[in-house]
Amino acid sequence: MGSMETPPDAAGGTVGKALHVLDMVAEKMRPVRFNDLLDGSPYPKATLYRLLQTLTAQGMLSYDDERQTYAPGMRLVRLAHAAWRQSSLAPVARPFLDSLSREVGETIHLAQIDRGQVLYVDKRNAASPVEMFSQAGKVGPGYCTGVGKAMMAFLKPAELEEAIKNQSFYKHTDHTLTNADALRAELTQIHEDGIAFDREEHEAGIICIAAPILTSNERVIGALSITTTKQKFSLEGLDALRPVLLTTATEIAQAAENWQFPRS
Fold first, then answer.
1. Distance separating the N- and C-terminal Cα atoms of the chain
2. Cβ atoms within 10 Å, residue 54
3. Closest alpha carbon to 255 in 137, 118, 110
4. Which residues contact 104 (CB under 8 A, 6 or more apart)?
5. Whose C-alpha in 56, 63, 174, 196 is 20 to 30 A from the C-alpha of 223?
6. pLDDT digits (tens, 9 = 90+) for 112-159
7. Domains of the chain (ranges plus CATH)?
């Protein structure tokens, strides 16, 4: 049976628990059986079953009788698509990503921040794409990605402290920052420089240069990165792309100025 630890969203009552179960299903990235969910669940068996039944009845989950698996439902897919169109930076940024990708010939990422974590909302692959963790729709860590650090460096103090509390500081590579003090020091430097680097901190051999996307009053609405490999570029070589990266980030920010985005 799953752990009885209180889930992070339990304060929201039944709605919070239901959203937490949706997160559990989505995080599996595949159709999942009840017992697989139960193994990592903070809910008793009966509670988890009741939540799954409710979510399925409402179309937020779908249930495959033959395979006995749960997956995101079509109602959830429709909501997600509407959110992407209305709240995501991606539709506004798309032409600028296309232009930047053509100009530099490397992988471009567009991301937004959610409670200190990175949500990749769009991606443009280079002519010769490299296999890497990030893809649109995936959630990554803030503390060891270029886009994550670029956004965190420009958060207001209270937002930053909350974001730092939500970092795991897991050591992905020998270059990963593994404590809050080291992260704060780098974020201070990033705020001064206006750009961030990923120095193989999340994936060995993968490096990037990233810039925040800021409104005119310096509210963070996203970040943009140019990502490549150490086989193709040095960090100094990536830094040469700083002007075009910053120009594109500014263009996206200006285009998005009248768009209403949810606060992180």
1. 34
2. 15
3. 110
4. 226, 241, 244
5. 174
6. 998 899 999 899 886 655 555 555 567 899 999 999 999 999 999 999
7. 10-79 (1.10.10.10), 88-255 (3.30.450.40)
